[in-house]
Amino acid sequence: MTYFRSPLFVPFCLIILFLSAPYSYGDFVEDSPPNLTYHDGALLTGTITVNFIWYGNFTESQKSILTDFIVSLSDGSVKTEPSVASWWKTLNKYYSNTGISFPTLTLGKQITDSSYSHGDSLNISDIPPIASRGPQKNAINVVVTSADVGVEGFCISRCGLHGSGPGSSMNRFTYIWFGNSSTQCPGQCAWPFSQTDDGPPTAPLLPPNGQAGTDGMVVNLASLLAGTCTNPFGDGYFQGEPETPLEAATACPGIYGKKAFPGYAGGLLLDPTNNASYNAHGVNGRLFLVPALYDLSMFGCATTV
Ligand SMILES: *[C@@H]1O[C@H](CO)[C@@H](O)[C@H](O)[C@H]1NC(C)=O
Ligand SMILES: *[C@@H]1O[C@H](CO)[C@@H](O)[C@H](O)[C@H]1NC(C)=O
Ligand SMILES: *[C@@H]1O[C@H](CO)[C@@H](O)[C@H](O)[C@H]1NC(C)=O
Ligand SMILES: *[C@@H]1O[C@H](CO)[C@@H](O)[C@H](O)[C@H]1NC(C)=O
Ligand SMILES: *[C@@H]1O[C@H](CO)[C@@H](O)[C@H](O)[C@H]1NC(C)=O
């Protein structure tokens, strides 16, 4: 079992680096550009179901924000750019470089655990058994814990993680976990919809789906999906040590629009009906905020706006 660290947690050294060299789409960081390399291992490919295990107390409206995001990844019906689907295709190059075909992510099963089967205070080691209730093959099982569920280490070192179950190569399932950050550690895990703990104090952005906690979860889900597909078993695309890798989204922390720097998410689109910030259109007329991804063809962090 392997874990990869949170998408949103910005190590202090990176903050220093970004202060001296902010960058966005196609820009370069002179000091130390992200340099993701392929380690010759497996990438997720084929048709992959994204299954949700709702651990705790969720409303249908909360669930539909996250499930609509998954449908938006591969739905060609959204014609308004920038779209979630075109954001996701930033990862095309990771596949074309290796000859592995780009995966199709579809919304799979939804499993509800509203009886808190492992209690309301979880250890990280509880996550894989909960995730294993989803399909065992060609699957990303997403464990979402509600705001009232404590998870050891949440905030301290991570806002979420991804890993894989037992077995060999493509025969093992992958999983993602993240919690509801709005009550537990909004400054780290729900930024930029919440005041940051680390950077200069700036006004939080208004979330496109009206809930800082849930829109923060979309950012976590988006980042972890990119890492799961391109580095599912620890030998795909990453930079740095395999135990603490920078992956497709984590190589670009805190960047959502052009000219981002710590404490500033970058230039975003504004929804005139409520002044919420977003950078991607999805299905059902939804608006989302998605993180920058490292673009292998641009050698920089690509944002949709
Ligand atoms: C990126 O990393 C690879 C492998 O570690 C290395 O060969 C290459 O020179 C690096 N490129 C840059 C621009 O640092
Ligand atoms: C679930 O959440 C709703 C509001 O979000 C609350 O009214 C209800 O009491 C909660 N149920 C449990 C079992 O915590
Ligand atoms: C996250 O928690 C906040 C505060 O309790 C709540 O308003 C929001 O609806 C929750 N979102 C999800 C997806 O549970
Ligand atoms: C969490 O699990 C690890 C290893 O399984 C164990 O060492 C640690 O004590 C556990 N923490 C708590 C709070 O149960
Ligand atoms: C959006 O923000 C502008 C400038 O602060 C303000 O004038 C306008 O009333 C706001 N619109 C809504 C719908 O809140």
TrEMBL record:
* Keywords for the protein's UniProt record, in alphabetical order: Apoplast, Secreted, Signal
Q: Which superkingdom does the taxonomy of this entry point to?
A: Eukaryota
UniProt keyword Electron transport present = no
Q: Which Pfam families match?
A: Phi_1
The residue range of the signal peptide is 1-26
Compartments in which it is found: Secreted, Extracellular space, Apoplast
PANTHER family to which the protein is assigned, alphabetical: PROTEIN EXORDIUM-LIKE 5 (PTHR31279), PROTEIN EXORDIUM-RELATED (PTHR31279:SF54)
Q: Give the protein's recorded name.
A: Protein EXORDIUM
> Which species expresses this protein natively?
Carex littledalei
Upper lineage is: Eukaryota, Viridiplantae, Streptophyta, Embryophyta, Tracheophyta
